[in-house]
Amino acid sequence: MTQRPTTLGELEASGWRNRSVKEELRDNVIRRLREGEPLFPGIVGFEDTVEPALERALLAGHDLVLLGERGQAKTRIIRALVDLLDPEIPVIVGCEINDSPLDPICSHCRAVVAEDGSGTPISWIGREQRYAEKLATPDTSVADLIGDVDPIRVAEGRYLSDEHVIHYGLVPRTNRGIFSINELPDLPARIQVALFNVLEERDVQIRGFQIRLPVDVLLVATANPEDYTNRGRIITPLKDRFGSEVRTHYPVDPAHEIDIMDQEARPPSGDVPVVVPEFMKEVIAEFSRLLRRSPHVNQRAGVSVRLSIANLETMVASAVRRAIRNGEPTAVPRVSDLPAVVQSSSGRVEFETFEEDRKEEILEQLLGHAVLEVFVDAFEGFDFLPIVDAFDDPAFGVDSGDLVPAASLTGAFAESPAVAAIAQRLGIEKAPELTAAGLEFALEGLHLSRRLNKAGFGGTARYRGRGAHLS
User: Fold this and answer.
1) Is residue 1 part of a domain?
2) Which end of the chain is less packed: N or C, by CB atoms within 10 Å?
3) In a domain, 469, yes or no
4) Residue 398 structural domain
5) pLDDT category, 471, cuts 50, 70, 90?
6) Do 161 and 13 fall into the same domain?
7) Is 409 domain-assigned?
8) Above 60 in pLDDT, residue 146?
């Protein structure tokens, strides 16, 4: 439409057709699928697993539950559904529940249309105004979701038999839109019962009023799988009313985790340029993957992708600190920044109760395993003899640390072609800070594969030959 109608008569003349929200979503999904447009841009790693299930649920017109651990993009997926709504729809001016001018459901709008007819004023609302979400908490009430009698309107002189004394809750106010409940099992059972009619009969009942309010809403909920089982806190009749259950998961491919980290990590403020080598990102991603498989970690609580994002930000912050202290032009994270990752992870990972006293030790071990995994993959078939032979001298050693300048780290190998070969294998430029990061990564990998000794973890450490005495 070149000009949006402003009255009911103009809307009818324009040929605009009223559709339910599920029909609207289905039509827009079909259009995007035909045109090859992404349905969920910005959602990484779900293309072959979660997205097909979501597409089927939307095409079927189902209310749905997203089941997954924390940090699996459930809320982001739900908010992405908003983009599948039409850009704008018409509503009757002043309506609290987004009534359609062609099919009003509340008594106020029916009265307005009956009185004004084709002159009924209408306005247009966008996608964002058609979405609401509620975090389920123990203090959530039926009034919050469905509605209640407004005592202020009663005090103004209205009778309790007057439908206008009703204050509508979030569900009716999201009429013709999408309503989301995060952590559905946390709703008390008596509040879950209030959603029965919304999901099946598509109406709401408020207090003792003899009204039927046929709300048009797509209801989407999130839940932890542990709480959604028969032993969980979700009542069975409510589970039966959801049309589809969609399981989310953590990134299966470490490359997907890196893509999410790159997408979500906040760049540090300030004027210090930052370059993060790909192998350091791989270490962070591998660390999260190992945490998700560790028997020492409480897997029921999960290991969120937010941990990977925060760890990348912490590692970068450590590199920026070093660059500022040493006057280096570029901040490049390296292995000596990883102890900061242990500290930042300590309070975010839930361990099994009997492992609480060993959590830092476990984190250090898993981080070492992550470095070794990436090292082995990066340097398969590489000849480290020139590097290892240099450590045959008992007096020879290389100092590293979170504040050790790049020049000091690479000084002992300044003329060695092996350092250039390491940089070439890792695909990094020949800048001093990047060269230092590549060399330290190689030295750490040699230490973890028992070809070099190392004293210290965090602060300052020293790499020595296997025959050297470590004090």
Assistant:
1) no
2) C
3) no
4) 254-464
5) very low
6) yes
7) yes
8) yes
Give tens-digit pLDDT for 258-273: 999 999 998 776 789 9
How many angstroms from the chain centroid is the CA of residue 282? 19
Answer whether 244's CB lies under 8 Å from 220's CB: no
Residue 97: inside a domain, yes or no? yes
Is the pLDDT score of 275 beyond 90? yes
Render pLDDT for 89-135 as a digit per residue (tens, 0 to 9).
Answer: 999 999 999 999 999 988 889 999 999 999 999 999 999 999 999 99
Q: Which two tokens stand for residue 248?
A: 């989310």
Residues 290 and 216 in one domain: no
Domain match, 322 and 397 both: yes
Last residue of a domain, one of 247, 272, 301: 247
Q: How far apart are CA 134 and CA 184, in angstroms?
A: 9
**Judgement on whether residues 196 and 327 belong to the same structural domain of the protein:** no
Q: Among 443, 465, 461, 445, which residue's Cα sits nearest to residue 453?
A: 465
State the residue for tokens 């975010």: 348
Helix, strand, coil share (%) of the chain residues, nearest 5: 50, 15, 40
What pLDDT is stored for residue 224 in this prediction? 87
The single-letter DSSP state of residue 167 is E
Dihedral of the CA atoms 50, 53, 57, 59 (nearest 10)? 110
Query: What sign has the CA pseudo-torsion 337, 340, 342, 348?
Result: negative
Structure tokens at 245: 């259950």
DSSP string spanning 296-307? TB-TTT---HHH
Residue 212 and residue 15 in contact, taking contact as beta carbons nearer than 8 Å: no
Tokens found for residue 36: 């090859």
Whether residues 276 and 414 share a domain: the answer is yes
Q: Sign of the CA dihedral 361, 367, 371, 376?
A: positive
**CB-based burial, 135-153: b 16+ in 10 Å, e otherwise:** ebeeebebbbbbbbbbeee
- Does residue 470 register a pLDDT over 60? no
Q: Which residues pair with 287 in a beta bridge?
A: none
Distance CA 61, CA 52 (A): 14
| Residues forming beta bridges with residue 222, ordered by sequence position | 66
How many domains are there within the chain?
Answer: 2
Sheet with 64-67, strands from edge to edge, namely 131-135, 177-182, 217-223, 64-67, 244-247
- Residues 233, 110 share a domain: yes
Cα 10 to Cα 102: distance, rounded to the nearest angstrom: 12
CB atoms within 10 A of CB 3: 7
| Residues 197-214: tens digit of each pLDDT | 888 888 887 766 666 788
**CA-to-CA distance for 277 and 34, rounded, in angstroms?**
39
The closest of 378, 345, 395 to 448, measured between CA atoms, is: 378
